């Protein structure tokens, strides 16, 4: 009457597991995987989760609160809202993953957190596009160029831009959203340039109505992100750049709840003069943001990543090899 | 036009965070909480999650897979299914939490994992209750006693028992479930005894249709739990006992995917003879399980837990105090 499959592989018998031997036994089972990378990731995952439980002597009630927290974070998420990303962002994990995967390259534009508000339905648009439907909002002319590390302009870069509105709300936070607003997929021209009209970014609280909001409240942390505009620049042969630009002087510039602000991404806004007004067809006196992005060739980025990975694991107290630039447990 | 609250507390400015300084800066923000225990739990959480990311050089794709995995685990969960608990079980975390919160006490019955199938709607029943509606299943007479560590019987213990059916399915796995089956809330009599009729437990695969199933497949782990009956014994003044009994000889006895089997919980089944048949009104030849549970007074359990907590943190490379028996960061 059993629905079980026969035992397919010999593994050493395990029973009577305790705080002292559970970790190695979980690893014995997990190590059946044929992928060295999966084996390594789970080895480190199990070590750290178990050490966390042991070092905190996590109580049953705290464990249950954690189970309930993660379950609720999954359940409040949908196609347009990723609470788990927000959790990663507010614990500094997203910034860390970005720092590891896109290590600082002398000339290149720094990356920062993607955030939970990126979508895949932004309209394809031409330079000059007005990002927001709101006619009353304070406008911002955004003039950008994209070059490579040797200073050459890069044409045909897909420039995915997104931004909250004049109140700091993203379109996906509007329960009546019927189409994207505050988003566009632009493209650099032959001179590597693109431009659009945004609204002047304002600071805004990250969503506080879910489990992450409860966590920030428990930790007495403020939820306010400094105002910014998101950019994701993609072209085959170049390292994907996910970044954001922050107008200088925001009250939350140095206490960002998702740790995304970098000095090189803080920008002074200018003002549109007569000449620019005529060239871009926006009123004189409109606020203006100019930025020159620098992309890294994919090969250079890959080599730098592998070099940093080697440095990152050289002081661990176990032996590690690199496979495709990523660490795996060394084979004896 | 801002929806932000003013900055309520001075924190040191942070900007330009990198792989090297993100961890300490996340902790500075989290340390604003007024609870020393919350501060400590988040300190260890952030350290371990960040170290996991650094040691694996977690790729953006792997990070995204983790976000998607946890989100899906939340979304497949409902009142009767906790995929996050199953994740904790299959990574050995639940067993570890149980071992820490209910440390082995010489005379007492050992605990084991609660599992994801406990519910709060079991019917209150009298000794002699037949757990399953299935008339055809192989029956098992279960005769239990409950005593304290000095050997005295304990009356009025609430005995929450639950079990899968003859095919290894729990009632909550039946999409057409209209009421509990295979569950009961019994109570010990003045002699500390209770009994009921179960079905002979069979091994069964844990649910493989969710993210945890995908994880086990990736890790080439079998999903089959050895057959067992769950018990949760509660009485004010005694440490809550969550445990299970495993008939000896199951093919999966030493490779349990949730690491729950302990030798002291493996039982030899007997057979009902004439005398027992008359006493309990079950046919001669029915399989029989006898077990004597031993509960620990709450105070003793608390002291043992605090002692183990002290031992657990004494070799950490940072200073820790105990507060209400739980570790917190030592104040200078």
TrEMBL record, chains A, B:
Signal peptide per UniProt: none
Q: Which residues form the Intradiol ring-cleavage dioxygenases domain?
A: 115-296
Q: Does the keyword Iron apply?
A: yes
**Occurrences of domain Catechol dioxygenase N-terminal (ranges):** 36-108
Keywords, in A-Z order:
Dioxygenase, Iron, Metal-binding, Oxidoreductase
What cofactor is this protein dependent on?
Fe(3+)
Q: Which residues cross the membrane?
A: none
Which Pfam families does the UniProt entry name for this protein? Dioxygenase_C (PF00775), Dioxygenase_N (PF04444)
User: Would you say which domain of life the source belongs to?
Assistant: Eukaryota
What family does this chain come from, according to its entry? Belongs to the intradiol ring-cleavage dioxygenase family.
PANTHER family the record matches: DIOXYGENASE, PUTATIVE (AFU_ORTHOLOGUE AFUA_2G02910)-RELATED, INTRADIOL RING-CLEAVAGE DIOXYGENASES DOMAIN-CONTAINING PROTEIN-RELATED
Protein name per Swiss-Prot or TrEMBL: Hydroxyquinol 1,2-dioxygenase
Source organism per UniProt: Sporothrix eucalyptigena
């Amino acid at each position: 009457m059993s629905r079980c499959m026969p035992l397919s592989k010999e593994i050493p018998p395990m029973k009577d597991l305790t705080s002292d031997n559970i970790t190695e036994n979980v690893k014995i089972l997990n190590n059946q995987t044929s992928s060295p990378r999966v084996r390594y990731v789970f080895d480190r995952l199990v070590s750290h989760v178990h050490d966390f439980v042991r070092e905190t002597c996590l109580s049953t009630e705290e464990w249950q609160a954690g189970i309930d927290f993660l379950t609720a974070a999954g359940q409040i998420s949908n196609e347009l809202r990723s609470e788990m990303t927000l959790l990663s962002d507010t614990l500094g994990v997203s910034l860390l993953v970005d720092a590891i995967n896109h290590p600082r390259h002398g000339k290149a534009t720094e990356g920062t957190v993607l955030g939970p508000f990126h979508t895949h339905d932004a309209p394809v648009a031409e330079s000059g596009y007005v990002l927001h439907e709101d006619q009353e909002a304070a406008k911002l002319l955004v003039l950008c160029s994209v070059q490579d590390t040797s200073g050459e302009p890069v044409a045909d870069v897909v420039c995915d831009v997104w931004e909250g509105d004049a109140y700091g709300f993203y379109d996906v936070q509007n329960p009546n959203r019927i189409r994207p607003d505050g988003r566009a997929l632009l493209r650099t021209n032959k001179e590597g340039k693109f431009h659009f009209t945004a609204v002047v970014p304002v600071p805004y609280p990250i969503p506080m109505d879910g489990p992450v909001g409860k966590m920030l409240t428990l930790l007495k942390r403020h939820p306010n992100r400094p105002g910014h505009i998101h950019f994701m620049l993609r072209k085959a042969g170049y390292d994907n750049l996910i970044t954001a630009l922050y107008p200088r002087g925001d009250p939350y510039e140095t206490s960002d709840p998702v740790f995304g602000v970098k000095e090189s991404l803080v920008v002074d806004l200018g003002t549109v003069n007569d000449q620019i007004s005529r060239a871009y067809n926006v009123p004189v006196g409109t606020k203006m943001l100019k930025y020159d992005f620098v992309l890294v060739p994919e090969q250079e980025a890959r080599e730098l990543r592998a070099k940093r990975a080697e440095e990152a694991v050289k002081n661990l107290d176990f032996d590690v090899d690199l496979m495709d630039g990523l660490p795996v447990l060394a084979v004896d």
